[in-house]
Structures are given as structure tokens and as C-alpha cells.
DNA sequence: GTCTATAGTCGGATAGAC
DNA sequence: GTCTATCCGACTATAGAC
């Protein structure tokens, strides 16, 4: 852990060796910012946990805000990479006029992948608190615009167009937007309210089987809701 | 606003006149704690906004934590008072074996009243950020246990028993608990993610008509889901 | 490129006058 | 019961040695 590649031979090809230290600081900072919030997480603690000295943060990120921004960028990059396959598939599907069944299936896949990312995968769980904070509108308004631009807007837009095509309504009516928020809110509840959930259920740890159970419940509800939307829209039209 | 009842005649009957100042400090502190969080909201700012001097907070609440606790108690008291009618009705209903239609109706009423409290009523909207913070598991673990004890547990318990009776399953299986969390999460999404919602919809303010629109969408979804649960449970049994 | 030492600021809490 | 003045600690950021 403290090893961190040989110190001798400080790389002469212009290729920054400090990238490794930089990444380690970011990975240390993300859970701390998530748990304590921007203000309460002290740079001293982050530096200590990352095994570097306080001024190193100034050196790599200019300021505490710079570090926070870097954390957000790190998360945004990995999330958008992980969601790319489903999002791409959904966008291709939206071009042609697919059956409701197919559209609903893709919507469920999308939520399922998001659930994996936010609840299941152990390597990404450390991001969850910071993302939850930002989504709740807390946080210093540094990261949220960035996250929106990088993947939240796209994700939300795809959901709206899917629901629009399922119901035959326009994708950008308040009606559709609100229904998408409510539908996806079911997953959000577990993501943001993870702490409440654990105590409510009497679970002490968050095992993978729990995560899979949650995912199945949420996807089941979403499928139910989407079919209901589809049917009610059809009877309205007919 | 700065009037605050005549100062002369400082009440001699042992009846604390300071109660009024105390209440004003709490009502000032709640939105500040909600917006900035426990650490970042400074006692100086709270005191200044409330029109008192910093040491007054020490005098009335002992410490910053004491003030936070007092804020939580203030909210808990009013929320449990406001929810009492529906909760009482639901609990009476759970004694007898009512029709699914009636049970679903009560569940919807319950969510509807909660939505009024969290989104619609102007006098209670200042509580929303602090409640959202606590529900997200952020906050200094001072208020959440208190809020749970005072109304969250009861509310959640009633929802679980309603769903249990609707589906004919037990109220305390993980199955039922998770479904209740997912169902209610739809309201939570608007409560906690209020900021995201406003920007997504392009709304600049949060008008009462918006709140009513959101409430109708959420209640509609919940009714759909509860009926689906009821039917699927019946076919399982039959 | 990484460290030690320190400056400057702001927070919560306390003491004592009125 | 309310105010002024002050203490002490913690934080971020900087300067300069190695």
C-alpha cells in the first residue's frame, strides 16, 4: 500500500509519475467527502489517510475545491463508462419504433445496471455516499453541474424518451418528466437512504445478496408501472 | 417580525418569557442547518439571523448539539401531530380485516398527507432540507434516532402492515419491508432530490400547483403498485 | 517533488459586566 | 436574562528548506 512504485529514476520522458499519488489521493478523498461532506472532511485527514502530507493536496489540486472537483470527475468518468453499453443500446432502439415490451425491457436493464453500480459492485460502493450527497442538492455546488453534464442528463433524457415512446406521449412534458423521477426514485431511495434501510431491516452489513434482492424488487415495480402506463395510454387513445 | 411581543413586564409567575426567543432561534436554525449541514452552519450566523447574540444559544440550548436536538424535537412534534389523524385511522383499520380497496385507499391517504407536509404546505417546507439530510444518513447522528422514535418507525410500521394485509403476507418479512421502501421512495425522490427536480423541469420556483401535480403522480403510481401486489398475491395463493 | 514550520482565519464556548 | 469581550482550538493555505 505504502509501496507505490520505485522512487529512484524519476521518469524523464515527460510522463508524470505523480499521477499515481494523485489517483491515490482521489480514491482516499471520495469516501471521506461522502461520509463527512465537503466542509467537515479536513484536508489534513485526507492527506494522512492517503499517506501524503497536507501541502501535497495544494500541489496536485490547487485547493480543496480542486480536489473535490477531481473526485467528481473521477466518478463521472467511470460511471459514464460503465453505463455506456445500456445507454447506447437504448439510444439505438429509440431511433426505430420498437414494441413496448422491448422498450420496457431496456428501461429495466438500464435501472438494473445502475443498481449494480450504486448498490452491488464492491469497487464502486465507495462513490455512493458522495453521489447521494450531490443528488440531494447538498454539497458545495462544485460537483453537481459536472455530474449532470457528464451522465445524469443523458441518463434522465433516455429514460424520458423511453417512457415517452412507451406511452406514446412526448418525452419532454412535465407529465413524463415527473413520472420518470418517481419511477427512478425507487432506486434512489435505497441509494440515498441506505442508512435508514439497514436499520429498518435490521441488517448490519450490506451483503451482495441483499443488493440483488433490492434490485429485483425495484425492477419488478418498474416493470409493473411501465406496463400500466402503456396500457392506460392506449385506452386513452383508443 | 422583530416586534415579538412587549418586553416590559417580564412575567413573574414562573412562566418563562424566554420561550418566545427560544422558539424564534429554533425556527431560524432549522433552515440553516438544513441548507448548510450541522458543521457548516455557524452558531454566529444563526444567532445573527435570529436577532440574538451568540451566547444566547449557549444559554438556551447548552451547546450547538443541544440546539440541533431541539430543532429535531420541534419538527418531530409537529410532524407526528399532523400525521396523527391518518395514522390513527390506518391503525384502527388494521384491527378489522378490511377490503383491499379500503386498505389501498388509506395507504394513498397516508402518502398524500405526507406529501402535503413535505412538499405542499408553505409553513412546513423549511423543515424539508433538514429532514432530507437526516433521512440520507448525513447529519451528526443526533437527530435521526429521535425522529425515528417519534414518527418514522410508526409511519413505516403502518405502511408495512397495510401492505402485508393487502398481499396477505406477513408485515415483517424483508420482502414487505423492501417493497414499502421502494414504494415510498417515489415520494422521497421529490423530497430529497428537490433541487435536481427543479433544474430538470426548468422550474425556477416551487409553486403549490407543482406540488399538487407531483402528489397526484406519486399517489397514482402507488395505487397502481398496490393493486398489482394485491392481484399477484391472490394468484399465488389461488 | 516532497517535506517542516507557520501564518491567518474562523469556529464554538466561557467569563463577567449590566 | 441579555450583552461585550475574550479564549482556545481547528482549519486551509503559504513560504521556504531539503
Give the secondary structure arrangement, pairings included.
Two copies of one chain form a homodimer.
Chain A: H1 19-36, H2 43-50, H3 54-61, H4 64-95, H5 100-120, H6 128-135, H7 144-167, H8 174-192, H9 194-201, H10 208-237
Helix pairs in contact in A: 1-2, 1-4, 1-6, 2-3, 3-4, 4-5, 4-7, 5-7, 5-8, 5-10, 7-8, 8-10
Chain B binds a DNA duplex (18 and 18 nucleotides) through α3.
In brief, what are we looking at here?
2 copies of one chain form a homodimer. Chain A is built from 10 helices and no strands. Chain A is mostly helical and 238 residues long.
Keywords:
mainly alpha, elongated, DNA-binding, disordered N terminus, 238 residues, homodimer
Task: Walk me through this protein's architecture.
2 copies of one chain form a homodimer. By secondary structure, the first copy, chain A, is mainly α. Chain A is 74% helix and 0% strand. Chain A contains 10 helices and no strands. In chain A, helix 1 packs across helix 4 and helix 1 crosses helix 6 (128-135). The longest helix of chain A is centred in the middle third of the chain and has 32 residues, at 64-95. The radius of gyration of chain A is 21 Å and the shape is elongated. Mean pLDDT of chain A is 89; it is low at 1-16. The A-B interface holds A 37, 39-40, 132-133, 135-138, 144, 148, 152, 156, 174-175, 177-179, 181-190, 192-197, 199-201, 213-214, 217-218, 221, 224-225, 228 and B 37, 39-40, 132-133, 135-138, 144, 148, 152, 156, 174-175, 177-179, 181-190, 192-197, 199-201, 213-214, 217-218, 221, 224-225, 228. The structure holds a DNA duplex (18 and 18 nucleotides).
Amino acid at each position: 500500500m505504502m509501496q507505490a512504485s520505485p522512487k529512484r529514476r524519476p521518469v524523464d520522458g515527460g510522463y508524470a509519475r505523480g499521477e499515481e499519488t494523485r489517483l491515490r489521493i482521489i480514491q482516499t478523498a471520495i469516501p471521506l467527502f461522502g461520509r463527512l461532506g465537503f466542509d467537515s472532511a479536513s484536508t489534513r485527514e485526507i492527506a494522512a489517510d492517503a499517506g501524503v502530507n497536507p501541502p501535497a493536496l495544494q500541489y496536485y489540486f490547487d485547493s480543496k475545491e480542486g480536489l473535490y472537483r477531481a473526485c467528481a470527475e473521477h466518478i463521472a468518468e467511470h460511471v459514464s463508462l460503465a453505463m455506456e453499453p445500456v445507454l447506447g443500446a437504448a439510444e439505438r432502439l429509440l431511433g426505430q419504433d420498437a414494441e413496448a415490451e422491448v422498450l420496457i425491457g431496456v428501461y429495466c436493464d438500464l435501472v438494473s445496471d445502475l443498481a449494480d453500480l450504486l448498490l452491488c459492485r464492491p469497487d464502486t460502493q465507495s462513490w455512493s455516499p458522495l453521489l447521494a450527497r450531490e443528488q440531494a442538492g447538498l454539497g458545495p455546488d462544485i460537483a453537481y453541474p459536472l455530474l449532470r453534464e457528464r451522465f445524469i442528463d443523458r441518463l434522465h433524457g433516455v429514460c424520458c424518451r423511453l417512457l415517452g415512446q412507451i406511452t406514446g406521449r412526448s418525452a419532454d412534458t412535465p407529465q413524463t418528466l415527473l413520472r420518470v423521477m418517481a419511477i427512478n426514485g425507487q432506486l434512489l431511495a435505497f441509494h440515498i437512504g441506505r442508512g435508514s434501510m439497514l436499520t429498518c431491516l435490521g441488517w448490519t452489513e450490506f451483503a451482495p445478496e441483499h443488493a440483488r434482492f433490492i434490485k429485483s424488487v425495484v425492477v419488478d415495480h418498474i416493470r409493473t408501472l411501465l406496463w400500466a402506463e402503456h396500457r392506460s395510454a392506449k385506452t386513452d387513445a383508443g
